[in-house]
Design brief:
Elements: H1 3-25, H2 34-47, E1 50-54, E2 57-61, H3 64-74, H4 78-95, H5 99-122, H6 126-153, H7 157-188, H8 197-229, H9 235-249, E3 254-261, E4 264-271, E5 274-280, H10 289-297, E6 301-305, E7 308-316, E8 321-328, H11 338-406, H12 416-444, H13 449-454, E9 467-468, E10 474-475
Antiparallel strand pairs: 1-2, 3-4, 3-8, 4-5, 6-7, 7-8, 9-10
Helix pairs in contact: 1-5, 1-6, 2-3, 2-4, 3-6, 3-7, 4-5, 5-6, 6-7, 8-9, 8-11, 9-11, 11-12
């Protein structure tokens, strides 16, 4: 059966349970002002919900149990169900969740509250009836959420309940106890409510900090595991690690990352299992609608596009972004909430440092490569100088001798014997120049050395009258 069809069936069953509970409990006798107060309290609690992870699943907890428990102590009846539904509707409108998710949440709370109200009415209300009713509320809520999660993920239903129910029971009992205590104090010792302000504030602060620290710990763990897999840290590999970490931290979302590389933008697409798509794109990639939207906002942007929740963020300055990230969850999934935004803020800070360090590393490697090339050139020039130094000395000495031989004698006539010596010196100069040019040619193209080796198969008769060609290769005229 299609997962969405299963969710719709669960939603229909929850709606039927809500109607049955309302028919059994009736409307009740609460004052009119109690309905908007309870609705506002539920809406505020849902907007500040705490999301915790159990294995690979994410479950949401709020303080709505405390408000509902206090309402059941005050007056049991169907009015509480209507107030809770109104509160959930307001929260869903603010969070802009998908229609199927919103309908399920409304039906879930309506059924859980109606069954809790029915149990409280059956026991006669009061503190004991409200306690039992909140127990039913927790059981129904856990069963419905577990069924929806099992339908959409394919995980075994009983396994999900076994993983989530212990901690959710502790969380729900704590919130319910605060609500029941507040209701009892309101009827018996109203001034005692002031004493609950500080404990409730500390409780909420601890939830908030726990969630933030857990998110940071998960983020650091993902980045650390990615760093362990990186053998040579480059900006390309670092971008892939950041993308994979974002996909896992956002509950298996599909992530797109556009990196402003030195040779032009690079686009990466992938999920928690890797980055199968990577290619270079033209600069117009930064003109995409979601890129312009997040850069113009200058902050993390969340919402729903084509029925898929998304979260976009920019790394670096808005006028010169280092990269932009766009994470999208599947259709009908939970929208990105305040906790996800907090996690995204931590991700942005860490990813900016990660990619900046990788960029500096790439620049350093390029500088080292250039320095190594310059060193090789300097060594080649040094070797060339060592090979040609002797020939230059010969040239200088020959030039000196030629100058002396060409000078006229004191009688003003050139010595006839000097003509032969001049010719010999000219041959010496020719051989020295040929040797010098040959050394330069071999230094410029080492493959020329193979020519000399290849001529070993040709019989060459070397005599004292052999001459040098302009390539510096010794060749006899008698070959």
């Amino acid at each position: 059966m299609n997962p969405m069809t299963q969710v719709r069936l669960i939603t229909g069953g929850a709606a039927a349970g809500a109607i049955a509970g309302l028919l059994f409990a009736g409307w009740g006798s609460a004052p009119l002002w109690a309905l908007p107060v309870l609705a506002a309290a539920v809406a505020a609690s849902e907007l500040a919900a705490v999301e915790l992870s159990f294995g690979r699943q994410r479950w949401s907890f709020s303080c709505a149990e405390g408000a509902i428990g206090a309402a059941l102590v005050a007056s049991t009846g169907g009015w509480a169900v209507l107030a809770v539904v109104l509160g959930v509707v307001m929260a869903e409108l603010v969070q802009k969740v998908t229609p199927i998710k919103a309908v399920f949440n409304i039906a879930q709370f309506a059924a859980s509250t109606a069954l809790g109200v029915a149990m409280s009415h059956y026991l006669g209300g009061g503190l004991m009836g409200a306690t039992a009713g909140m127990g039913i509320f927790w059981l129904a809520n856990s069963a419905l959420v577990g069924g929806a999660v099992s339908a959409t993920t394919g995980k075994p239903y009983l396994s999900l309940l076994w993983q989530s129910m212990p901690l959710s029971a502790l969380h729900s009992s704590g919130n319910t106890s605060v609500g029941l205590l507040a209701a009892w104090l309101a009827f018996n010792a109203p001034l005692g409510l002031l004493g609950l302000i500080v404990p409730m504030g500390l409780l909420w602060f601890s939830y908030d900090q726990q969630t933030a620290r857990a998110a940071e710990a998960n983020l650091f763990a993902e980045l650390a595991r990615g760093q362990e897999r990186v053998t040579g840290q480059s900006i390309d590999v670092s971008a892939q690690v950041v993308l994979t970490a974002a996909a896992r931290l956002f509950g298996g979302a599909d992530v797109e990352l556009v990196l402003n590389g030195g040779d032009g933008p690079l686009r990466y697409r992938g999920d928690e299992y890797g980055v199968p798509e990577r290619h270079r794109v033209d600069p117009t990639a930064f003109d995409d609608e979601w890129v312009i939207r997040v850069i113009a906002a200058g902050e993390i942007v969340t919402g729903v596009d084509d029925r898929r929740p998304y979260c976009s963020m920019v790394l670096g300055r808005e006028d010169s972004p280092l990269a932009v990230i766009h994470a999208r969850r599947p259709e009908g999934a939970t929208a990105f909430g305040r906790r996800d935004v907090m996690l995204a803020q931590v991700l942005v800070g860490q990813a900016e440092s990660w990619l900046s360090v990788a960029d500096l590393t790439a620049s350093r490697d390029a500088a080292l490569a250039e320095a190594e090339a310059a060193g090789e050139a300097a060594r080649a020039l040094g070797d060339l100088g060592a090979d040609t130094a002797a020939n230059l000395v010969v040239l200088r000495e020959s030039a000196g001798r030629l100058a002396r031989l060409a000078a006229p004698s004191r009688a003003g006539d050139l010595d006839p014997r000097g003509v032969g010596e001049i010719v010999d010196e000219l041959h010496a100069v020719e051989r020295a120049v040929a040797s010098l040019l040959g050394a330069i040619a071999l230094a410029a193209d080492p493959d020329l050395a193979s020519l000399g080796a290849g001529m070993g198969d040709v019989p060459v008769q070397r005599t004292s009258d052999a001459e040098w060609t302009t390539t510096g290769l010794y060749v006899s005229e008698s070959i």
